[in-house]
Amino acid sequence: MKVAVVGATGLVGxxxxxxxxxxxxPVTELIPxxxxxxxxxxxxxxxxxxxxxSWQDAIxxxxxxxxxSAGGSTSLELAPKFAxxxxxxxxxxxxxxxxxxxxxxxxxxxADVLTADDKIIANPNCSTIQMVVVLKPLHDKxxxxxxxxxxxxxxxxxxxxxxxxxxNERQGKxxxxxxxxxxDLNALPHIDVFLDNGYTKEEMKMxxxxxxxxxxxxxxxxxxxxxxxxxxxxxxxxxxxxxxxxDLAEVRDILSKAPGVVVQDDVAxxxxxxxxxxxxxxxxxxxxxxxxxxxxxxxxxxxxxxxxRKGAATNAVQVAEYLLQKGILN
Length: 330
What we know:
6-stranded mixed sheet
C-alpha cells in the first residue's frame, strides 16, 4: 500500500511517520510531501531514507491514502486535487472540519459513518478528540445536556517554534517568539484568534466539533482554552451535566470499558492523569472522577492525552486503519 504524508517534515507529520511505523500500518511505499523548499530532503521511515517529493509527484505515484498535516490553506488547495485523483485524504487541519459535506471522525466515536465515497475525511481538533472519546460512552448511557471545559494545553500544539520559545526562556536565551508573551512560568488564556463573541477560535472549535462528532446539536458546550508551559499532552477539566442521574462506580466501569480510554482514578494513592505520563501514548486518560455537589446529575473529571498522538497523528492513522479493515482502502 502506497501512503503519502503531506507535511512530512513538520512536528505532526514526523509523528505520523512514527505512528505508522509503530502500529505496523502496511506501508509498501512511503511518499513524503512537503513545501517546495523541502523537496529533495530526506525523512526516515522504518530505518530507510525517503526523499521528499512535490505534491504533483505524489499524486502521480497514486497512493491509496494521503495523511495531511500541512496547514489549512494547503489542505484547501491540495486535498481536492488528491481526492480528484481517487486518493483518500485524511486531513489534520481545520480546513474541512465544519464543512457539512465532509465527515469529522474520531474512530472510537463515529467511524461507522464512513463510506468509500468519503475522499476527504477531517481529523478533529486535538482538544476535542480527547474529550469526545470520554463523553461518547457517557452520553450513550446518561444523555449529556451541557459541558463546561477548561483546557491546559501543551506548547507542542503550536509547533516547533513554540517548543523552542519555551526552551529558550527556560535557559535565559533570546529567540524567536511563537507567542505574544513569555510562556515559561506563565499561562496564556489565548489559543488561536479571538472572535467577535469574545471566545477564541479554539474554544468555538470545541463547541462546534463536539456536536458534529457526537451527532447531537442539543449538547451545549462552553470552553476556555489555555496554553501552559508543558509538553507531553493536553489536560482538560470537564464538568458534564446529564439528563439522567448516574452512579460513580458505574461511570468508572463504563469508562474502563470504553475504547481508547484508560481510567487513572485512585486519589488515595495519588494516581491521576498527567501530561508527563500520557506522553508518547495513544490512549486518552481520565481521572479525578467525582460528583459535582452543587447541582444534580453533574460529573467532574480530568482528561489528558498526548496531543501530537491521539490528538493528531494517531487519530489520523486509526481512521486509515478503519478504512483498511472495512476494505475501503486497497
